[in-house]
Amino acid sequence: MRKLAVAMGARESTLAGLSGMGDLMLTCFGSLSRNRTVGKRLGSGETLADILRTTKEVAEGVPTTGAALKLCERYKLDLPIIRNVALLIQGNISAKEAVTALMLLPLTAED
Question: Which residues in the chain come in under a pLDDT of 70?
């Protein structure tokens, strides 16, 4: 998220505050997070179509992932988490394949 935001002109410190890091933490760990719920269900093997059909609430991360992927292409960024989440949402890979792809990335220093 930080790399994409900075490439688009944001200050790096913006994402370190509650509006950035706080939102990310709630999304990842909050039991009421709609995005987390979708992710857990995808991880358990459900298809996105089944999840969306049985969910009344909007998980904004589903359409936002596609938009983020397009922005990565526009700004010539390779962001593996966004790419693999997009592939998972599109049904092109399983959750296990997405995690495996991320875990097999070469170790590099964060910039």
Answer: none
**Residue 93 DSSP SS3:** coil
Dihedral angle, C-alpha 102, 78, 35, 16, nearest 10 ° = 100
Please, is 68 exposed, middle or buried when counting C-beta atoms within 10 Å of its C-beta (0-12, 13-18, 19+)?
buried
Type of residue numbered 48: L
Place of tokens 């909050």: 30
Q: For the whole model, what pTM was predicted?
A: 0.88
Residues whose CB falls within 8 Å of the CB of residue 42, separated by 6 or more in sequence, listed in order: 48, 51, 88, 89, 95
Are 4 and 79 in contact by the 8 Å Cβ rule? The answer is yes
Q: Specify whether the CB–CB gap between 84 and 101 falls below 8 A.
A: yes
